[in-house]
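Replying to the earlier thread about multi-chain prediction with a worked example.

Input:
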Amino acid sequence: MIEIMSPAELVRARETGALVANILQTLKSRATVGTNLLDIDQWAKAMILEAGAVSCYVDYAPSFGRGPFGHYICTSVNDAVLHGLPHDYALADGDLVSLDLAVSLGGVVADSAISFTVGSQSEQDAAMIAVTERALKAGIAAARPGARIGDISHAIGTVLSAAGYPVNTEFGGHGVGSTMHQDPHITNTGRPGRGYKLRPGLLLALEPWIMADTAELTTDADGWTLRSATGCRTAHSEHTIAITDEGADIMTLPR
Ligand code: MG
Ligand code: MG
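Result:
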Protein backbone atom coordinates (compact mmCIF):
# COMPACT_ATOMS: atom_id res chain seq x y z
CA MET A 1 0.00 0.00 0.00
CA ILE A 2 1.15 3.54 -0.81
CA GLU A 3 -0.32 6.38 1.27
CA ILE A 4 -0.41 10.02 0.22
CA MET A 5 -0.37 12.32 3.27
CA SER A 6 -2.68 15.32 3.59
CA PRO A 7 -1.14 18.70 4.54
CA ALA A 8 -2.40 18.14 8.11
CA GLU A 9 -0.73 14.71 8.21
CA LEU A 10 2.52 16.23 6.97
CA VAL A 11 2.42 18.68 9.88
CA ARG A 12 2.13 15.67 12.19
CA ALA A 13 4.93 13.88 10.31
CA ARG A 14 7.20 16.82 11.07
CA GLU A 15 6.26 16.67 14.77
CA THR A 16 6.91 12.93 14.85
CA GLY A 17 10.15 13.38 12.94
CA ALA A 18 11.42 16.04 15.34
CA LEU A 19 10.67 13.74 18.28
CA VAL A 20 12.56 10.85 16.68
CA ALA A 21 15.51 13.10 15.85
CA ASN A 22 15.61 14.65 19.34
CA ILE A 23 15.56 11.21 20.97
CA LEU A 24 18.37 9.95 18.71
CA GLN A 25 20.53 13.01 19.42
CA THR A 26 19.91 12.71 23.17
CA LEU A 27 20.87 9.03 23.09
CA LYS A 28 23.99 9.79 21.07
CA SER A 29 25.06 12.43 23.56
CA ARG A 30 24.46 10.08 26.53
CA ALA A 31 26.08 6.99 25.01
CA THR A 32 29.69 6.61 26.02
CA VAL A 33 32.23 3.93 26.84
CA GLY A 34 30.55 1.68 29.41
CA THR A 35 26.95 2.49 28.44
CA ASN A 36 24.82 -0.66 28.30
CA LEU A 37 22.59 -1.22 25.26
CA LEU A 38 19.73 -2.04 27.64
CA ASP A 39 20.11 1.43 29.22
CA ILE A 40 19.88 3.05 25.77
CA ASP A 41 16.68 1.06 25.22
CA GLN A 42 15.22 2.19 28.55
CA TRP A 43 16.14 5.84 27.89
CA ALA A 44 14.42 5.58 24.49
CA LYS A 45 11.34 4.02 26.09
CA ALA A 46 11.09 6.80 28.68
CA MET A 47 11.33 9.57 26.07
CA ILE A 48 8.82 7.89 23.73
CA LEU A 49 6.26 7.40 26.50
CA GLU A 50 6.79 10.87 27.95
CA ALA A 51 5.99 12.38 24.53
CA GLY A 52 2.79 10.34 24.28
CA ALA A 53 4.16 8.52 21.24
CA VAL A 54 3.75 4.86 20.31
CA SER A 55 6.74 2.61 19.63
CA CYS A 56 6.67 0.95 16.21
CA TYR A 57 9.05 -1.73 17.49
CA VAL A 58 7.93 -3.13 20.81
CA ASP A 59 5.07 -5.24 19.41
CA TYR A 60 6.57 -5.62 15.94
CA ALA A 61 6.45 -9.24 14.79
CA PRO A 62 7.16 -9.60 11.05
CA SER A 63 7.65 -12.93 9.34
CA PHE A 64 11.46 -12.58 9.31
CA GLY A 65 11.84 -11.90 13.05
CA ARG A 66 11.44 -14.01 16.14
CA GLY A 67 8.83 -11.51 17.28
CA PRO A 68 7.63 -9.53 18.97
CA PHE A 69 10.75 -7.33 19.12
CA GLY A 70 10.04 -6.39 22.75
CA HIS A 71 12.32 -3.31 22.78
CA TYR A 72 12.06 0.37 21.80
CA ILE A 73 15.10 0.98 19.64
CA CYS A 74 17.47 -0.98 17.40
CA THR A 75 21.05 -0.96 18.70
CA SER A 76 23.49 -2.37 16.15
CA VAL A 77 27.19 -2.41 17.15
CA ASN A 78 30.25 -2.90 14.91
CA ASP A 79 29.50 -5.87 12.61
CA ALA A 80 25.77 -5.67 13.48
CA VAL A 81 24.07 -3.32 11.03
CA LEU A 82 20.27 -3.67 11.06
CA HIS A 83 17.56 -4.67 13.55
CA GLY A 84 20.06 -4.95 16.42
CA LEU A 85 18.18 -6.33 19.42
CA PRO A 86 19.23 -4.46 22.60
CA HIS A 87 20.99 -6.88 24.96
CA ASP A 88 23.27 -6.84 27.98
CA TYR A 89 26.39 -5.32 26.42
CA ALA A 90 28.45 -2.37 27.65
CA LEU A 91 29.91 -0.21 24.86
CA ALA A 92 33.69 -0.37 24.55
CA ASP A 93 36.15 2.27 23.33
CA GLY A 94 35.94 2.59 19.55
CA ASP A 95 32.62 0.79 19.14
CA LEU A 96 30.62 1.87 16.09
CA VAL A 97 26.98 2.21 17.11
CA SER A 98 23.93 2.48 14.87
CA LEU A 99 20.65 3.52 16.49
CA ASP A 100 17.44 3.10 14.49
CA LEU A 101 14.16 4.46 15.84
CA ALA A 102 10.59 4.61 14.52
CA VAL A 103 7.62 5.94 16.49
CA SER A 104 4.06 7.01 15.75
CA LEU A 105 2.64 10.29 17.06
CA GLY A 106 -0.85 11.44 16.18
CA GLY A 107 -1.17 8.50 13.81
CA VAL A 108 1.86 9.32 11.63
CA VAL A 109 5.18 7.44 11.75
CA ALA A 110 8.71 8.79 11.38
CA ASP A 111 11.79 6.57 11.04
CA SER A 112 15.45 7.60 11.35
CA ALA A 113 18.84 6.08 12.04
CA ILE A 114 22.25 7.47 12.97
CA SER A 115 25.71 5.92 13.29
CA PHE A 116 28.53 7.16 15.53
CA THR A 117 31.47 5.86 17.50
CA VAL A 118 32.04 6.03 21.24
CA GLY A 119 35.48 6.93 22.56
CA SER A 120 38.20 6.93 19.94
CA GLN A 121 37.27 6.76 16.26
CA SER A 122 39.29 5.12 13.48
CA GLU A 123 39.64 6.84 10.11
CA GLN A 124 37.95 3.87 8.45
CA ASP A 125 34.88 4.11 10.68
CA ALA A 126 34.63 7.88 10.18
CA ALA A 127 34.83 7.38 6.42
CA MET A 128 32.21 4.64 6.39
CA ILE A 129 29.73 6.72 8.42
CA ALA A 130 30.37 9.74 6.19
CA VAL A 131 29.67 7.68 3.06
CA THR A 132 26.22 6.62 4.33
CA GLU A 133 25.44 10.25 5.22
CA ARG A 134 26.60 11.42 1.80
CA ALA A 135 24.53 8.73 0.07
CA LEU A 136 21.51 9.78 2.12
CA LYS A 137 21.99 13.41 1.01
CA ALA A 138 22.27 12.30 -2.63
CA GLY A 139 19.08 10.24 -2.32
CA ILE A 140 17.22 13.19 -0.83
CA ALA A 141 18.47 15.48 -3.62
CA ALA A 142 17.10 13.04 -6.21
CA ALA A 143 13.67 12.91 -4.54
CA ARG A 144 11.31 15.42 -6.13
CA PRO A 145 7.88 15.32 -7.76
CA GLY A 146 7.99 13.60 -11.13
CA ALA A 147 11.20 11.72 -10.36
CA ARG A 148 11.00 7.97 -9.80
CA ILE A 149 12.05 5.62 -7.02
CA GLY A 150 14.82 4.35 -9.30
CA ASP A 151 16.32 7.85 -9.38
CA ILE A 152 16.67 7.77 -5.58
CA SER A 153 18.10 4.24 -5.61
CA HIS A 154 20.56 5.17 -8.34
CA ALA A 155 21.72 8.30 -6.51
CA ILE A 156 22.30 6.35 -3.27
CA GLY A 157 23.97 3.40 -5.00
CA THR A 158 26.28 5.62 -7.02
CA VAL A 159 27.74 7.16 -3.85
CA LEU A 160 28.10 3.79 -2.09
CA SER A 161 29.70 2.06 -5.07
CA ALA A 162 32.02 4.97 -5.89
CA ALA A 163 33.35 4.75 -2.33
CA GLY A 164 34.10 1.06 -2.92
CA TYR A 165 31.38 -0.56 -0.80
CA PRO A 166 29.36 -3.58 -1.94
CA VAL A 167 25.60 -2.91 -1.87
CA ASN A 168 23.05 -5.30 -0.38
CA THR A 169 19.74 -5.09 -2.25
CA GLU A 170 17.58 -7.06 0.21
CA PHE A 171 16.98 -4.34 2.82
CA GLY A 172 16.54 -0.68 1.92
CA GLY A 173 14.22 2.28 2.29
CA HIS A 174 10.44 2.23 2.20
CA GLY A 175 7.25 4.24 2.24
CA VAL A 176 6.08 5.54 5.62
CA GLY A 177 2.66 6.73 6.76
CA SER A 178 0.18 5.41 9.28
CA THR A 179 2.47 2.37 9.64
CA MET A 180 6.25 1.97 9.59
CA HIS A 181 6.82 -0.13 6.48
CA GLN A 182 4.85 0.57 3.33
CA ASP A 183 5.37 0.43 -0.40
CA PRO A 184 7.32 1.44 -2.32
CA HIS A 185 10.51 -0.44 -1.43
CA ILE A 186 13.60 1.66 -2.14
CA THR A 187 16.68 -0.45 -2.85
CA ASN A 188 20.06 1.13 -2.21
CA THR A 189 21.06 0.71 -5.84
CA GLY A 190 18.98 0.85 -8.99
CA ARG A 191 18.36 2.23 -12.43
CA PRO A 192 17.25 5.83 -12.96
CA GLY A 193 13.85 6.45 -14.53
CA ARG A 194 12.39 3.19 -13.17
CA GLY A 195 9.72 2.54 -10.58
CA TYR A 196 6.94 4.46 -8.87
CA LYS A 197 6.65 8.13 -9.79
CA LEU A 198 7.04 10.48 -6.81
CA ARG A 199 4.25 12.89 -5.97
CA PRO A 200 3.65 15.51 -3.26
CA GLY A 201 2.41 14.01 -0.01
CA LEU A 202 4.52 10.89 -0.24
CA LEU A 203 6.50 10.07 2.91
CA LEU A 204 9.64 8.00 2.35
CA ALA A 205 12.32 6.58 4.61
CA LEU A 206 15.67 6.56 2.80
CA GLU A 207 18.31 4.41 4.49
CA PRO A 208 21.69 3.74 2.94
CA TRP A 209 23.69 1.19 4.94
CA ILE A 210 26.96 -0.53 4.16
CA MET A 211 29.36 -3.22 5.29
CA ALA A 212 33.08 -2.72 4.73
CA ASP A 213 33.80 -5.76 2.56
CA THR A 214 30.64 -7.78 1.88
CA ALA A 215 26.98 -7.54 0.83
CA GLU A 216 26.09 -10.75 2.71
CA LEU A 217 24.25 -10.81 6.05
CA THR A 218 23.90 -13.35 8.82
CA THR A 219 21.16 -13.42 11.44
CA ASP A 220 21.91 -13.81 15.15
CA ALA A 221 20.34 -16.57 17.26
CA ASP A 222 18.06 -13.82 18.68
CA GLY A 223 16.24 -13.97 15.33
CA TRP A 224 16.63 -10.22 14.76
CA THR A 225 20.14 -8.82 14.69
CA LEU A 226 21.64 -8.75 11.18
CA ARG A 227 25.45 -8.82 10.95
CA SER A 228 27.99 -8.69 8.17
CA ALA A 229 28.77 -12.26 7.06
CA THR A 230 32.51 -11.56 7.29
CA GLY A 231 32.46 -9.82 10.69
CA CYS A 232 33.49 -6.52 9.10
CA ARG A 233 32.25 -3.19 10.40
CA THR A 234 29.09 -1.49 9.18
CA ALA A 235 27.23 1.85 9.15
CA HIS A 236 23.66 3.06 8.56
CA SER A 237 21.99 6.48 8.11
CA GLU A 238 18.28 7.13 7.66
CA HIS A 239 15.88 10.06 7.34
CA THR A 240 12.15 10.23 6.72
CA ILE A 241 11.42 12.77 3.98
CA ALA A 242 8.23 14.24 2.53
CA ILE A 243 7.85 14.88 -1.17
CA THR A 244 6.60 18.45 -1.61
CA ASP A 245 5.83 20.60 -4.67
CA GLU A 246 9.36 22.00 -4.46
CA GLY A 247 11.34 18.82 -3.78
CA ALA A 248 11.96 16.89 -0.58
CA ASP A 249 11.70 18.05 3.02
CA ILE A 250 13.49 16.18 5.80
CA MET A 251 11.02 15.35 8.59
CA THR A 252 13.53 13.80 11.02
CA LEU A 253 15.54 16.87 11.98
CA PRO A 254 16.07 17.78 15.66
CA ARG A 255 14.55 20.97 17.01
MG1 MG B 1 14.71 2.82 10.62
MG1 MG C 1 13.35 2.36 7.85
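The radius of gyration is 17 Å.

Feel free to reuse this layout for your own posts.
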